Amino acid sequence: MLNGWIISDTKPGEGYFSIEDLSALQKLPFKLDFINMADIDLEVADDQLTLIHVQGEYRPLPDFALCMFEQEVCYFHFALLRQLEMLGVFSLHKAKNIARSLDKFHSYQKLLRAWIPVAKTIMVNANSRLDWIVERIGFPMVLKVPDGSKGEGVCLVRNRPELQNIQDLYCKNIGRNLLAQEFIATSKGRDARITMCDGEVVFGVLRDNSAGEDFRSNISVGGNGVWWEPDDEAVRIAKAVVKVMDMKLCGVDLLFGENGYIVGEINSMPGCLHVLHQGKSNLQRLLEAIYRAVVKYTGHDR
Fold this sequence. Notes:
Layout: E1 3-8, H1 19-24, E2 31-36, E3 40-41, E4 51-54, E5 57-60, E6 64-68, H2 75-87, E7 90-91, H3 95-102, H4 104-113, E8 121-124, H5 130-137, E9 141-144, E10 154-157, H6 160-173, E11 178-182, E12 190-197, E13 200-208, E14 224-227, H7 232-245, E15 249-257, E16 260-267, E17 276-277, E18 280-281, H8 282-298
Parallel strand pairs: 1-2, 1-6, 6-7
Antiparallel strand pairs: 3-4, 4-5, 8-11, 9-10, 9-11, 12-13, 12-15, 13-14, 15-16, 17-18
């Protein structure tokens, strides 16, 4: 039987996986243990290439690891991913892929070069000419940090004084770069997420917050997630995105533009896991897809 670990940066029952979810893991056709990232010690030593230190003791390496990070990805997250790679533990997540997806501007550069539709985006720094930005994007515009997630660090800017104030505060005083992006009014409070595993669609979710005042669709800011069946064009774009970004497991967020879908973001940690459809949860669909990928790439199911 395959032995896997879910590695999370949250405590059991506090993140993607509820206590009920963790109990259900015992019924899977493979062994899957929940490991808190805080319990793992990283060590580079030539006499410890088949073990890993967890909760004060050495444990045999799992056959595969499913890393489900929910906090801001930091140095330790990347070090852990590279440690798993160094030890030969199979994971659908690679450090370089997550780093690439977290850099939104770089992602947009790669997608546009592949003729995948993205929103017009401008890098904002302390020296940026605001009149030119307004001319190119107009108001209202979306302003976001280039490495945020879950809708954090995203705001709607409605006039030049607001834009000037944010540039002064974040770019000139703090030294941060920001992204100014055209506001897709036809997608206000709504978007679709397609979760992909090994190049195939696992499930689609429509996130809707259009009834509220917030322009963001994220469930973390009040949006609702319901089952959504992607059409052929949505599937085509999602498959093109994961190919360009070289992602084995991710969520592709699509905005509803006037003339078709526009890629909003690539999320390396798929959420929306508790949406039910035809008696099955998205979490179950995800675990089944991961199991198929693990068997495919490890070459066995023992």
